[in-house]
């Protein structure tokens, strides 16, 4: 009895294998599946109807044979389904499941991002951008900006001279004079650009760095305009923040002030980054010195103005908590790609 059953099972397995191999389309395969495994009239179900006629011991062996044949049939149905699918895709055999290659995408440098953001904020309140040469004459860089002729900044130790009176500009302030020579007030100008100093390349200095200058000249401009505009800027750039102005000195402004914002790391309570003061200096500013207006041919009795200069690299360091300025100039993609926008 058992032998008969096992022979029938074997024959079913062979038939199934031939049937599945011969299937040429998905429809052929589906009808083969129904014929073999169909719940009502399938050949496997028909075979199993003989199981109760066997003794319990024989049933164990027969049941195992049935299971073996069933999973063999299911397996060949699956692999045939896959091979029919590949054939129906044509000859290209494109593997649509392969992950795509990542595309390399450039980004803006963090200092550029900061400069553009500063420009956007000042553009909203009527400032336009002006540029000037990086190789500048001693007159525009120092003389017209009210530096006395023996000022230490004019020393070869501090400034990179190209010839006797041409140098790499040490600040963007010459753009003030150049703009005032060409345009009559009222003017509101923002002047971003690179400046050069004879500094060592260390954690907080670089021999070349970006600066952004801003100035406004008109009738009746006062220190109130300076404070209000720069406070507005600080609140727009850093979010609601406290600010303070400290008296300072620059040859080209009088009076002069350094502007501090609340430390962006400890928010005023004091930490290592702000040397426990709770404040961080972000820019130098002041009322344009009458001598500067006169050097540019502007009537200093009629017009007044204010100006500021700040270092976008330092602002980027503040914002992104970058401990060393050299990271911004090293062009190390592993670092820059974390901040690029
Ligand atoms: Zn702090």
Cα gyration radius (Å): 40 Å
Helicity, as a percent range: 40-55%
Shape: rod-shaped
Stretches where pLDDT is under 50 for at least 5 consecutive residues are none
Question: Widest sheet: strand order?
Answer: 1-4-5-9-8-7-6
Order of helices and strands: HHHHHEEHEHEEHEEEHEHH
- Kindly report how far apart the N and C termini lie: 79 Å
Question: What structural class results from the helix and strand content?
Answer: alpha+beta
Structural notes for this entry:
- The chain has helices at about 1-20, 25-35, 45-50, 55-90, 110-125, 140, 175-180, 225-240, 290-295, 310-320, 335-340, and strands spanning about 130, 135, 165-170, 185-195, 210-220, 245-250, 255-260, 280-290, 305-310.
- It is α+β, with helices and mostly antiparallel strands and about 350 residues long.
- Strands 1-4-5-9-8-7-6 form a 7-stranded mixed sheet, sandwiched between helices. A two-stranded antiparallel sheet has the order 2-3.
- A hairpin with a 2-residue loop joins strand 6 and strand 7.
- Helix 1 runs parallel beside helix 4 (about 55-90).
- The radius of gyration is 40 Å and the shape is rod-shaped.
- The mean pLDDT is about 90.
- Zinc ion binds near residues 263, 270, 271 and 273.
- Zinc ion binds near residues 263, 265, 266 and 271.
